[in-house]
Amino acid sequence: MGGMQTTKRIFVWSGPRNISTALMYAFAQRTDTQVFDEPLYGYYLAHSPAKAYHPGTEDILRTMEHDGDRVVMAMQKNQEKPVLFYKNMCHHLLDLNRAFMKQGFNVILTREPREMLSSFREVIAKPAMNDVGYQAQVELLNYFRNESLPFVVVDSKDLLLNPAGYLERLCERIGIPFDPAMLSWEEGPRKEDGIWAPYWYSNVHRSTGFAPYKPKDVPFPSSLEPLLAACQPLYEKLMECKL
């Protein structure tokens, strides 16, 4: 049996500030799994206006592959562990051919827009739709449906409300056994962290597991109200398919 058949590839398509790094840390606790942190980030910054305002751009462009097709080829060829977990930001895809997604199980990871935007603006002060992923996630949802690809939509709040039960259901849908080791990890950074970790990962580096869900209690900035209004119906469309 060839590597394409024996290796389980999990492609996570997240928006920013969606607990994607915590989910990556959870999968990193599995002895059968190797995790990868945003392999398309270099490609994205090299080919989008975001390079002008993302923190750490110079280091990311200096150390990562800019050719998205080469990154995709590496994801397809890798066989180093039985399970390969690729944490991606959905908007990093840009105009790449999506056909490679047929070789894995796809997870759309999202978050309620008001909470996500409040958190995201702490790093990116003036986000636009292309920064936050909801439109890209709905496009992926439609692609998966049209191509009859197996996928699941995960809402980060549901995961935080019941990490053990939710991860068990997620693993079942992916087709791998649940491992209780996924529920906790050592405090601090991981070797798989992207070079951008100092700008984005401070909370997860202080954690030893999934933090209990707490609604954000800060006032929502009026400057982001138009973006919130555009994101909300997209989020609701995603919620129609959630796990």
Notes on the protein architecture:
It is a single chain. The protein has 13 helices and five strands. The protein has 243 residues and is of the alpha/beta class. The protein has a single domain, classed as 3-Layer(aba) Sandwich (Rossmann fold), CATH 3.40.50.300. It has a five-stranded parallel sheet, with helices on both faces.
Q: What are the salient characteristics of this protein?
A:
243 residues; alpha/beta; Rossmann fold; five-stranded parallel β-sheet; 5 strands; globular
Produce the secondary structure layout.
Elements lengths: L2 H4 L1 E7 L5 H9 L4 E5 L3 H6 L10 H7 L4 H10 L5 E7 L15 E6 L2 H8 L8 H4 L1 H13 L4 E5 H6 L1 H12 L22 H4 L1 H4 L19 H15 L4
Parallel strand pairs: 1-3, 1-4, 2-3, 4-5
Helix/strand/pairing category: alpha/beta
Question: Strands of the largest sheet, in order across it?
Answer: 2-3-1-4-5
Q: What's the architecture in CATH terms?
A: 3-Layer(aba) Sandwich
Order of helices and strands: HEHEHHHEEHHHEHHHHH
Would you tell me which CATH topology applies?
Answer: Rossmann fold
Helix-residue proportion: 40-55%
Largest sheet: 5 strands, parallel
What is the rounded distance between the termini?
31 Å
Radius of gyration: 17 Å
Oligomer: single chain
What's the number of structural domains?
A: 1
Write out the CATH superfamily name.
P-loop containing nucleotide triphosphate hydrolases
The portion of residues forming beta strands comes to 5-15%
How many extended strands?
5
The average pLDDT is 94
Poorly predicted regions are none
Count of alpha and pi helical runs: 13
What characteristic shape results from the CA principal axes? globular
